[in-house]
Amino acid sequence: MTNFDNQSFQKTKFSKEQLENHLNSAKRDVEIADKSDIPEVVFKFSYDALLKIGIYLIAKEGYKVKSGFGHHIKILEKLAETLKDENIAILGNKMRQDRNVGLYAGGLSVSQKENEEYLKLTKSVLAKAKNL
Question: Quick check: helix, strand or coil at residue 9?
């Protein structure tokens, strides 16, 4: 279980409006990814939406993630734990690694099949998060 340790998380009170803004931002990213036929756009917005959903669920628990080394990993772990779906951690981490290769190694190369799987995961995660 990923706990809310003081090194990675900070206790914070969020208003209902702030929580809604987090969720709406994730929804917008999913819509952009879903409408695009540019593979890099689909990937980037799917990954960003996944992180935003995690941030939203963490905020619902009264915490925010501290920015720093490994904070995306913490978000994905907490997201998988909250939704009780280890596949989120596995695919989310694969997306994070792909993103890092694209960002730090000079280019992103994600297959159409991977993109479809990532977007499908993100849509599923969004639906689950909205039902909590």
Answer: strand
List the beta bridge partners of residue 87: none
Give the per-residue pLDDT at 1: 47
The CA distances from residue 100 to 38, 94, 130, in Å, are 19, 10, 28
- Measured distance CA(116)–CA(32) in Å, rounded: 14
Name the band, by pLDDT with cuts 50, 70 and 90, for residue 119. very high
**What number of CA atoms fall less than 13 Å from residue 20's CA on the CB side?**
3
Residue 128 is encoded by which pair of tokens? 């689950």
Q: Which two tokens stand for residue 1?
A: 């279980």
Digit-coded pLDDT (tens) for 24-79: 999 999 999 999 999 889 999 999 999 999 999 999 999 999 998 889 999 999 99
Domains of the chain, first to last: 11-130 (1.20.120)
12 vs 41: CA distance, rounded Å: 32
Indicate the DSSP class of residue 11.
E
Q: Which amino acid is at 114?
A: E
